[in-house]
């Protein structure tokens, strides 16, 4: 899999694009502010912690963006976005030519991928989140590297597979979304999956055979690790379960990264590996922030063989 160095944010490319008329974008842009939570008094008490942690979600909440604008998040995104330091770490490991972000949300991961990859295809089914992602990409000055597509990633994958099927009818290929046709001919180096976990109460989801959670590495006495948690089942990942999502992604490329809750059963993750096929290895990395393990990044294909010394300092 080709690797590339981090880009400078002032480098201009021509291929990042969005679809739709200018009038459509202007009409939708008003909607995103109606859905955005931008002040502390807009948050219910049980979500205020996310507002207090806003600079770890997007560092440009400090107001230092070139445009002078702040990032925008809707209610769900405040608790589901990947914190920026973690997104940056994942982007370093997934550094490549073309990456597909299958559930881009408001763009936390896509923005970081734009700094390490030649091109980012970012898909989300929610039009409001997608418009916020475009806004946030502009705030970070990387919109020219990202192609945003609205729709169900699973349908896009079907269209991608159909485009390569010599037995598929030409009429079926032509019936695909015209926006998708601009991207479904691409060959992806990496597919990134960060599907919905089930909301703020995802920790209450239990597998059919509850087990106690054991950290991947012993925690130091100063780290507050919650005890007696049950494993999170991969089947709880929306919209169709982790196994189905992974198998679909593997048809596009063997290089897949899944971002999942820290309490996922490692044995269930290991069951995704095909020891006799292209998916013969898995590498699991704990993602820590403020002294707590927040999630797991699971790497397959060539991503599983990544070595720390491969990381390239930003130019």
Text of the CATH class: Alpha Beta
Q: Determine the N-to-C terminus distance.
A: 21 Å
Largest pleated sheet: 7 strands, mixed
CATH homologous superfamily identity: Vaccinia Virus protein VP39
Q: How many structural units, i.e. domains? A: 1
Rg calc: 19 Å
Biased composition (Basic residues): 1-11
Region (Disordered): 1-27
Protein name: Trimethylguanosine synthase
GO cellular component, one term: nucleus
Task: Describe the structure in brief.
The chain is 31% helix and 13% strand. The chain is built from twelve helices and seven strands.
Summarize the structure in words.
With 315 residues, the chain is an alpha/beta fold. The chain has one domain: Rossmann fold. It contains 12 helices and 7 strands. Strands 3-2-1-4-5-7-6 form a 7-stranded mixed sheet. Helix 11 (242-252) links the parallel strand 4 and strand 5. Helix 8 (153-163) runs parallel beside helix 11. The longest helix is centred in the N-terminal third of the chain and has 14 residues, at 22-35. The chain is globular. The two termini are 21 Å apart.
